[in-house]
Design brief:
Length: 153
């Protein structure tokens, strides 16, 4: 059985450098990046039953967030759930949890993977899923810039 501390250590060793290369700042489990008037967010969230986690992606348009929602919240304190749109890393529709404990895998009716396999998958998904998602949201927000609110996801 893999414990949470081991999973976190592997994520810090494998995924955090990828996030840093992408321009993210912050400390585990919360990361942010300011890019072209937007703040991109990454949060690692562990399941309360243990043995699994998800990665939440969010994005806030700085003009909207500072004027309408949270004018006193610094980018490093903004969280994905405070944004108008967020998604789980690797989710096509709905939810995506990464399971590293075989006992939890049985409960979730999924297959457990090793921490190294999961970290490699997450690192790849930051590039293949997260970056395109953030880019699409930036593009949509520019198209709808005349609106008082950014478009819903």
């Amino acid at each position: 059985m893999t414990d949470r501390a081991e999973m976190i250590a592997v994520l810090k060793r494998s995924c955090v450098p990828v996030l840093r290369d992408m321009g993210f700042q912050g400390t585990f489990p919360h990361f942010y990046r300011e890019d072209a008037g937007f703040v991109d967010l990454v949060t690692f969230q562990f399941g309360r039953e243990g043995g699994c986690f998800c990665v939440n992606l969010g994005q806030a348009d700085r003009r909207w967030w500072t004027s309408l929602l949270l004018p006193k919240v610094a980018p490093d304190k903004l969280r994905f759930h405070q944004t108008r749109g967020w998604v789980r890393l690797g989710a096509i529709q709905g939810d995506r949890w990464f399971v590293y404990d075989p006992e939890i895998a049985v409960l979730r009716r999924s297959a457990a993977q090793t921490p190294d396999e999961i970290a490699a998958l997450c690192a790849e998904l930051f590039l293949s899923h997260a970056e395109p998602w953030w880019a699409q949201r930036r593009s949509e927000a520019r198209v709808f810039s005349g609106r008082s609110r950014p478009p819903r996801p």
